[in-house]
Write a structure and sequence with these properties.
This protein has about 200 residues and is of the alpha/beta class. The protein has one domain: Rossmann fold. About 55% of the residues lie in helices and about 15% in strands. The protein is built from 10 helices and 5 strands. Strands 2-3-1-4-5 form a 5-stranded parallel sheet, with helices on both faces. Helix 7 crosses helix 8. The protein starts with a strand and ends with a helix. About 25% of the residues are buried.
Length: about 200
């Protein structure tokens, strides 16, 4: 790829958004897989028509928009249903992520991909940054952020790839177990390190 592509991934409530926000503030181009997924299911999009064909017209509200909460409830705990939805969305998400990374300005592009392990097929990435946080802290942050109880928070974590799986594929790890100021200082160092890697790649080093 002409554009140096850096994925940022991590479990729910790990701090992915905070890391991406800081890197964006430092000049990186950030491309969010979740936002692309939302674009793909807007009224009139082919992916939305496929979702309706697979799951039924009751997935749409009175305005023809996807009933996101109902969709989440439908696939939560139902692996075949989740696989059907992923087969519709994820190839399109991967294609748009790559296209936008190639077109991005700046020395490197940050691709926010929460489900990097679960979806796979990202061999074109130059670096993978995993945001790592101890599970106890992750659960506490998730319960505070979403107002859920411990049982649902644990179920949400178990529905994702494990911490060990994310660390196994990471080329770089950001440990987010302190306050926001500490995280931003780590991101500042990461930004300069990624700039160096991008320049080396551009030179063919």
């Amino acid at each position: 790829m002409a554009q140096f592509a850096v994925a940022v991934t991590g479990g729910v409530a790990s701090g992915k958004s905070a890391v991406c926000d800081r890197l964006a503030a430092l000049g990186a181009s950030v491309i969010d897989a979740d936002l692309i997924s939302r674009e793909l299911v807007e009224p009139g999009q082919p992916a939305l028509a496929e979702i309706v064909a697979a799951f039924g017209a009751d997935m749409l509200d009175e305005h023809g928009a996807l009933r996101r909460r109902l969709m989440r409830e439908r696939i939560f705990g139902d692996a075949p249903a989740r696989a059907r939805l992923e087969a519709i969305l994820h190839p399109r998400v991967r294609l748009l992520l790559r296209e936008r990374a190639l077109a991005a300005s700046g020395r490197y592009a940050v691709l926010a991909i929460p489900l990097l392990i679960e979806t796979g097929h990202y061999s074109w990435l130059d670096r993978i940054v995993a945001i790592d946080v101890p599970e106890a802290i992750q659960l506490d942050r998730l319960m505070q952020r979403d107002g859920v109880d411990i049982g649902l928070a644990q179920a949400m974590l178990q529905a994702q790839a494990s911490r060990q799986q994310r660390l196994a594929i990471a080329s770089d790890v950001v440990i987010n177990d302190a306050d926001l100021g500490t995280l931003e200082r780590i991101c500042d160092r990461l930004h300069h390190w990624l700039l160096d890697r991008a320049m080396q790649a551009a030179r063919g080093d």
